[in-house]
Amino acid sequence: QVHLVESGGGSVQAGGSLRLSCAAYGYAYISYCMGWFRQAPGNEREGVAAIDSDGSTRYADSVKGRFTISQDNAKSTLTVYLEMNNLNTEDTGMYYCALALVPAARYCRAGYERSTDYNHWGQGTRVTVSA
């Protein structure tokens, strides 16, 4: 049973930085997509960044150049990071990591942009950016 645990959220001023972590326990598969999503009050959950088991990454236009997704899959526990720089108030929200197990990493690059594509979710970590 896969279990995801996020950490690293907090409150920062605009222009500041945070680093989120997502540890995947019970992970025993080779090919996967791992995504970071966020949800602001009253808004739908939106994809922020994603990485696949081959290391390919993609980002939402709103975070390109400011956020970096990376992973450490050399150990028995998969950990995915989201480095967030130059934060602004529109980055405020709950951030969730999500995992999809796929037959091969190329499936991630062909899709897996929607929250409904993922079936394992963490509990979320809150990010608050003040002006």
Order of SSEs, N→C?
A: EEEEEEEEEHEE
How much helix is in the residues?
Answer: under 10%
Structural class of the secondary structure composition? mainly beta
The number of E-state strands comes to 11
Question: What distance lies between the first and last C-alpha atoms, to the nearest angstrom?
Answer: 41 Å
Whole-number average pLDDT?
93
In words, what does this structure look like?
The protein has 131 residues and is mainly β. The chain is 3% helix and 50% strand. The chain is built from one helix and eleven strands. It has one helix spanning 106-109; strands spanning 3-7, 10-13, 18-25, 32-39, 46-52, 57-59, 67-72, 78-84, 93-101, 120-121, 125-130. Strands 2, 4, 5, 6, 9, 10 and 11 form a seven-stranded mixed beta sheet that branches. The longest helix is centred in the last third of the chain and has 4 residues, at 106-109. The radius of gyration is 14 Å and the shape is globular.
List the helices and strands and how they pair.
Blueprint: E1 3-7, E2 10-13, E3 18-25, E4 32-39, E5 46-52, E6 57-59, E7 67-72, E8 78-84, E9 93-101, H1 106-109, E10 120-121, E11 125-130
Parallel strand pairs: 2-11
Antiparallel strand pairs: 1-3, 3-8, 4-5, 4-9, 5-6, 7-8, 9-10, 9-11
